Amino acid sequence: MKTCYLHLGMPKTGSSSIQSAFAGFETADLAYAKLQGSNHGPAMCFAFSRKPNQLPEVEWRGRNFLRGKWPFANFKQQFERSLETRKSIIFSGEIIVDRLDAEEFGELVGKLRAHFPRVVAIAYIRPLASLASSQFQQRLKTGQRRFVIPAPDYRKRFEKVLAEFASGDIIWRRFDRADLYNGDIVTDFAHLLGTETPPRAEMSKNESMSAEALGALYAFNRFTAPSLPVAMQNSIRNQMQESLRDVGQTKFGLDAKLIEQHIERHRDDIMWMEDICGFDVKGKVSMVPNPIANQRQLLELAASLGDNANNRI
């Protein structure tokens, strides 16, 4: 049966690796959709959001982003063209359930169902114990200015998925190396689809950074970025990430007590997700040497880079 596979993340579950590996993938009966970029999330959100000009992705790229060859209408037209296939198709975008509200998401799913006899949602769920540090680190890379661990938002993300899909058309997978097929996210995704594992075109773009480097990013976000235009903030932040990629010796990780408090704070959300997917979503806290417990420690690590880091930026 011709099927549409809608991969919905969640964030920090290897989505970039899946997208990088599957970009351009095609067999006799299955293809990865050809939209702008291997991550289909922005294009699909631009196509289905009622207020696409207010999406964060526009501001991050600068207001000149849509003055070129990609006005919003083009994203919808490209999406419509991608549906004109006799093959099963894969769409992948972890921000879809974050940016689209229930009505917008329902419109997207309805459009898919008009072209495919079956639409299947795929979601990898990361337990909060391991998600907390990873999510905090990613938010620093995108401009977070407060020392706050982001909420997992399991229910906020996936309640709209439950409203559109029967339970038999949702695949929930626990994002843990022990649970993935051959311990690998790309191989696991291919296994779910019943297809071959594509070669790796490139490494994931979400490599970990040292605690010192992340401290430098945090200092920039908190003290310098607020006075700059958003596009300039992002340009400098990207340059810093490249310059600081191999700087620092301290492995980043949040203090276990901080994570346990975070888990307790979101216990209701964890229990809701566990009831839906049927597996543990709390997880186990992994210890790292010299974990970060507060803002002061993170800024002190940034300061320890000294002139060496300044010379590299």
Provide an overview of this structure.
The chain is an alpha/beta fold and 313 residues long. It is built from 15 helices and five strands. A five-stranded parallel beta sheet has the order 2-3-1-4-5.
Task: Summarize the helices and strands and which ones pair or pack.
Layout: E1 3-7, H1 15-22, E2 30-32, H2 41-48, H3 56-61, H4 72-82, E3 88-92, H5 96-99, H6 102-113, E4 118-125, H7 128-141, H8 154-164, E5 170-174, H9 185-193, H10 211-224, H11 230-243, H12 256-265, H13 267-277, H14 295-303, H15 306-312
Parallel strand pairs: 1-3, 1-4, 2-3, 4-5
Helix pairs in contact: 2-4, 6-8, 7-12, 10-11, 10-14
Shape: globular
Beta-strand level of the residues, as a percent range? 5-15%
Element-level helix/strand string: EHEHHHEHHEHHEHHHHHHH
- Percent helix, as a range, is 40-55%
**Major pleated sheet:** 5 strands, parallel
By DSSP (H or I, 4+ residues per run), the number of helices equals 15
Query: How would you write the strand order of the largest sheet?
Result: 2-3-1-4-5
Number of strands: 5
**Uncertain runs:** 309-313
**Radius of gyration, whole Å:** 20 Å
Secondary-structure class: alpha/beta
**How many angstroms separate the termini?**
53 Å
Q: How much is the average pLDDT?
A: 92
